[in-house]
Amino acid sequence: MQGNTLREYVFSYTQSKPQTITDPLSGQQESISGYLNLNRIQVEGVGGQSLNAPVINLTYSLNNLHYFDLWKYATPTNNCSPDSWAPKDGNGACYLWQRSYNTYFLTNIDNGEGWNETITWTEGHNNTHGVDSGAIDEPATCNTIRNSTNRCGKADDKNWSHYMVTQRQATSNGETSTWGYKYWLQTGLPINYVGSVCDECGQGFTWGNQNDNDFADYYNGQFESYFRVQINEPDGTYQAHIFATTTG
User: Fold this and answer.
1) pTM of the predicted model as reported, rounded to 2 decimal places
2) Would you say residue 221 has pLDDT above 90?
3) Number of C-alpha atoms within 13 angstroms, CB side, residue 55?
């Protein structure tokens, strides 16, 4: 009004500075970026005057994505992934690996007006070499059984993992609604399929070129979505979405 500020929006963040890691490919020191997460939005009047307005709060979880290449070794070979289950050869040498850093996923949002939603995430894998037990076409099968020598430890061979929303739960004015999400991989891919890297690699979510040797760029593979996604609705019904994945 008349050029005067009536209200201000105050944004609150958490952040971190860059950090230095040893690059698994070159063995050289490398700087990676920090993070900047928006955690709070508050409305104030002139000069910081409290308006008793609703405050929006946001919460995140740190979830690292993973990648491995069993055709190559880390430099040096004892420059291993911090994950204990990361694949190693019979002599304990570590295969080439990479992971994301400072990747935060939204897990809760509260609008300060009676609406609160929680989002649950889990890591999904390509299951490149199959699984040791459980469903081979479910991308989360290996999460609890992977180790450094079994098939599930190799689930991300030549593929980046991807995080999936498995549940949303929203509460508004005392009423709670829950949505569940389930995912399936494409299966039955032939040995000569362009995205296949081994005889047992008959499932996955990545399309690429078998003759692409650009390992420094992850062989230029492309994530082609999941074969099927099912959404379980709060009323007990569900929606099934089928995608023609990994066919180019």
Assistant:
1) 0.90
2) no
3) 12
